[in-house]
Amino acid sequence: MSKKSTAFQYKFMRWMYRGKGIFNPLNTGWIDEHLACVREWIANVFFYRKGDTVIMIDAGYHYERLEEKMGWLGLKPAQISNVLLTHLDTDHTGAVEADGGGLFRNATVYLGEIENRYLTGERKRRVLYRLGSLPRVRIPNEKVLLRDGQVFTIGDIQIECFLVPGHTWGHMVYLLDGRYLLTGDAIWLGADGGYSFLASLAEDNRLAVRALAAFEAKLRARGLRPLVITGHTGYSADLDFVFAHRDLCCKTSDKRYFNPAAPYDAYDESEDTEARAVVPL
């Protein structure tokens, strides 16, 4: 995604979603001693720290304040040698794209093998009920392609991969150390619980709700109770809340999805300040 594409999305999305109560991103800060996030307008970039290893989950927009906000967290781009991508939408890949500024040019990028078809040009990312498309993403970094169910380690961090398609064809969800579940855009959390993500931005909404139900079944069958962290709407440790409406997709045209806790203009970052981004001891 080029700077031009970022600028277009900033203007269009800000106009389209203002007052809808849809996006409720976390402000920049530490969630606990291991997990932190940077706010980039309506999206969050996450960092997981264990010992001397720090990994980045999703890469946000082409966002000029990323290094500054990482500094609020006591983090530096040079610490990031590995980046996990849940999917290749333009608000999750910007910092590792060819024109993304090069902060993470030496990092290895991990993504799903099916999602990689957007990179190769085999697939075009369709949005707005498949009436529109997003620009092709280009990532020059070394890549590792992942499959559903794969388990691997980076340093002392164990990562398990779950394919949860629908929003994109190869959308991947990552479970870190069995405790933190980074879900990207597989789940939207509203005032009354979780839903499949925005209907207008999915490749296949029927697939999205089926995949989300199957994913929930896997978690419950294994007795897993992770902290569930979304890309745009915060987090919850309550699985009943997270999957309360897994058979429905969020629709911005329907007032039932309005979240009064969400900011009127989620692109307004005036509440995202360094003073609030407390670094844990």
UniProtKB/TrEMBL annotation:
Residues 42-232 form the Metallo-beta-lactamase domain. It holds the Pfam family Lactamase_B. This is Metallo-beta-lactamase domain-containing protein. It comes from Stomatobaculum longum.
